[in-house]
């Protein structure tokens, strides 16, 4: 029974739909007829309502008829032209709607995003999804009307050349809740930087807040005071307190700058004394120039900035570049009342040419850096030094065969003048290793 009732219902529905379609077709036919009648009326009405009286001559009547025919022909021509334009407009509108629909469907697809990045000059893997936040971060960003940068009306924000070699990691870095707390991903971020993804894109999130933060120790006491533990977010580091970092000097094995956080230990006497060999004293170096002419400078890979602290005591301002290698080096430097920049040795120095009085580097510039990369770095140091500026290369590590065959000629080739040069054997691993240090005080020529 149910089946028969359903069938009857479907038949009724079909009849109703058929009747509806017939009514629709009749309405459309009536609409076409009315439209045509209206058109005939519009274009022939002038003829009927402006007919000349019977007593008008046949010549005038013929002239009027010809004029009306000419007007009618012109109207038909105009209608045909308008119809053609309307058809073209409809086709264009349909194409635009199709394109907008396609873009809406594909805007989040990896292939489409890859195409956008390739237009910006980035070579990326189209199979990996790129976060929208990354696309927004690097631009291009349109400037307001009337503004330009070097005749360009849009701005591209800098991203390191190595970033798109590590596309998945970059995407992870740019995935976060906008306006909320950033992921505590310092170790992950620094690993990206050391791979060559530097500078990283900016992010629109807040760093984790410090709990129970207190005001820093006033200067000059801050130069040699251990800051409170509440000044640090300890999540990324093995140690969870400054006391742990201080005691790390007693830990076995090799750790970067393992005794740097103990300000009352070896750090307290660094660069105070000149032994006539590899260890140069700060006062000796400053005295090679007229008093007061060494005022500003840079320490590359300066650990916890004890070099900058000693210079600050002598009214010389030093900026320290350092990485947070399992320790809060940058935060510690800031707690001492000194300035740090979180950049790797691969980064172009963020200073204008001929501006710095002195550049210092201890240990970080050594033979672990490929020769070509090191030469670019040394030329960059030469660039930022003013004429007569000093480059203090402190305890550069190398093999005996590299000392005279590679590094001494490289420094001469760049153009430094040698004010002092000392070399010495590194014996802690045995004489057979033929390992050496050299220290050098170099000058950028005045002319």
Describe the structure.
Strands 5-4-3-6-7-9-8 form a seven-stranded mixed β-sheet. The chain has a two-stranded antiparallel ribbon with strand order 1-2. By secondary structure, the protein is an alpha/beta fold. The longest helix is centred in the N-terminal third of the chain and has 49 residues. About 3% of the residues have low confidence.
Q: How many angstroms does the end-to-end distance come to?
A: 109 Å
Biggest sheet record: 7 strands, mixed
Structural class: alpha/beta
| Approximate helicity band | 40-55%
Shape: elongated
List keywords for this structure.
single chain; 447 residues; alpha/beta; two-stranded antiparallel ribbon; 12 helices; 13% strand; elongated
Question: What does this entry show, briefly?
Answer:
The protein has 447 residues and is of the alpha/beta class.
Protein topology:
Layout: H1 2-49, H2 58-106, H3 110-119, H4 132-138, E1 141-142, E2 154-155, H5 167-173, H6 186-194, H7 242-247, H8 282-286, E3 296-300, H9 306-312, E4 317-321, H10 329-335, E5 339-341, E6 356-362, H11 371-384, E7 385-399, H12 400-414, E8 417-426, E9 435-443
Parallel strand pairs: 3-4, 3-6, 4-5, 6-7
Antiparallel strand pairs: 1-2, 7-9, 8-9
Helix pairs in contact: 1-2, 11-12
């Amino acid at each position: 029974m149910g089946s028969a009732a359903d069938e009857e219902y479907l038949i009724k529905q079909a009849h109703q739909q058929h009747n509806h379609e017939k009514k629709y077709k009749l309405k459309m036919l009536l609409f076409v007829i009315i439209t045509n009648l209206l058109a005939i009326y519009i274009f022939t009405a002038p003829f009927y309502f402006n007919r000349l009286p019977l007593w008008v001559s046949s010549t005038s009547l013929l002239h009027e008829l010809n004029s009306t025919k000419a007007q009618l022909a012109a109207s038909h021509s105009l209608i045909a032209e308008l119809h053609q334009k309307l058809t073209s407009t409809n086709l264009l509108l349909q194409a635009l709607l199709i394109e907008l629909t396609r873009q809406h469907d594909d805007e989040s697809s990896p292939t489409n995003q890859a195409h956008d990045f390739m237009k910006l000059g980035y070579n990326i893997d189209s199979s990996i999804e790129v976060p929208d936040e990354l696309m927004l971060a690097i631009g291009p960003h349109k400037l307001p009307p009337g503004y330009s940068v070097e005749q360009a009306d849009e701005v591209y924000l800098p991203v390191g050349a190595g970033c798109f070699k590590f596309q998945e990691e970059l995407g992870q870095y740019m995935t976060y809740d906008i306006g909320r707390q950033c992921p505590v991903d310092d170790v992950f971020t620094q690993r990206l930087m050391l791979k060559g993804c530097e500078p990283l894109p900016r992010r629109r999130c807040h760093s984790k807040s410090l709990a129970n933060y207190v005001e820093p120790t006033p200067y000059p006491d801050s130069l040699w005071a251990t800051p409170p533990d509440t000044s640090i977010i300890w999540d990324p580091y093995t140690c969870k307190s400054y006391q742990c970092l201080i005691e790390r000097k007693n830990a076995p094995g090799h750790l970067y700058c393992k005794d740097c956080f103990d300000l009352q230990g070896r750090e307290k006497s660094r660069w105070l004394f000149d032994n006539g060999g590899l260890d140069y004293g700060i006062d000796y170096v400053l005295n090679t120039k007229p008093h007061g002419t060494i005022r500003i400078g840079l320490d590359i890979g300066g650990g916890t900035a004890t070099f900058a602290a000693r210079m600050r005591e002598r009214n010389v301002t030093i900026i320290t570049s350092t990485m947070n290698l399992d320790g809060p080096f940058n935060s510690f430097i800031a707690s001492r009342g000194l300035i740090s920049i979180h950049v790797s040795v691969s980064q172009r120095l963020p200073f204008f040419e001929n501006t710095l009085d002195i550049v210092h580097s201890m240990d970080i510039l050594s033979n672990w850096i490929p020769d070509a990369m090191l030469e670019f770095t040394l030329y960059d140091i030469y660039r930022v030094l003013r004429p007569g500026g000093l480059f203090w290369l402190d305890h550069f590590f190398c093999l005996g065969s590299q000392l005279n065959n590679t590094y001494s000629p490289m420094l001469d080739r760049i153009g430094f003048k040698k004010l002092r040069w000392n070399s010495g054997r590194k014996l802690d691993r045995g004489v057979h290793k033929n390992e050496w240090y050299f220290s050098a005080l170099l000058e950028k020529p005045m002319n």
